[in-house]
Sequence to fold (366 residues):
Amino acid sequence: DLLDEGAGDLDGKTFHERLENHAIELSFRVGRDDFHGSLRSLNEHREEAFDLLRLALTAPRFDADAVERVRQQELAGLRRETTNPNNISSRRWWETAFPDHPYGRESKGSLETVPTITADDLRDYVRRVFARNELTISIVGDIDAKTAGELIDRAFAKLPAKNDLKPVAEIKPAGLGRRIVIELDVPQAVMTFGGQGIARNDPDFMAAYIVNHILGGGSFSSRLYKEVREKRGLAYGVSDSLVWFKRAAIVIGGTATRADRTGDALAIIEQETKRMAENGPTPEELVAAKSYLKGAYALSLDTSGKIASQLTQIQLDRLGIDYMERRGAMIDAVTIADARRVAKRLYSGGMLVTVAGRPKGLTSSE
Fold:
């Protein structure tokens, strides 16, 4: 949040004026595995844009007034989250699934840690993390390879050759089979549920991706959506997703429902998950899911920003430059036998469930 609040000879006000006067969009975000940046510029201002990116990455100022202003913004957001059932349920799920591990900690920090971070800590992070050896770049636009290479050098050539990252251990989610209820006086109860997933480089990943789409992958045709919302009206929405990191893989989902019907909603989710594990999808469901997943992929490529994001993720996942061409055939290659075998593998390990609210008749259990 501070990288665009002044860099090099430019204080925060001047840095933002440079961005705004040239219609340059520059932003950064951090996740559990990676630090991401995004730059968007008109072609006529691209050299200025890449110069500002270079300054942000190699010479951030971390001026005291900017540090304190952003710190207070972050703390205000964290304080709001202490009463938000979605945040409370999610945070407890991650803490329980990955105790004493970086994946169990929120990348935005906590009310205890954010006040202690100093400008020297920020400078040390930049020194250790920003380097060329694990740099992944995608550029989309009216630009040739030679010019793109020159701009890449303009922004990144002065970064150190190698980063200094601390090793992170491989881990599987803990607490499977547990249910944790966090008492909170709110009208609805918010539920987070999930368990062991399948790694992105696992040969079974595509089958798992299709099976998860059928069970709860976010579309209106999923089993969970039909059973929880359409048939019983217990929630506005319910879904789950495969999530993969460098050192872990999970399947995680969530919903919100009336406090007096939370137990019913959870029972249905557990029942449908068990049914998928035992029997897998039907041939008809498999055909429909394949058609949807192949057709919907184009929607993730309908803007230059989305294309750049997809290309970056393909590189991070080491899928190969021809992945977009191969993806359809990979989906088609999944048989009903594959889907049923992988459904059992994916959903037989049990779930960790966290609930924030006052769910009637539902208590914590080991």
About this structure: The first strand starts at residue 6 and ends at 7. The radius of gyration is 23 Å. The mean pLDDT is 96.
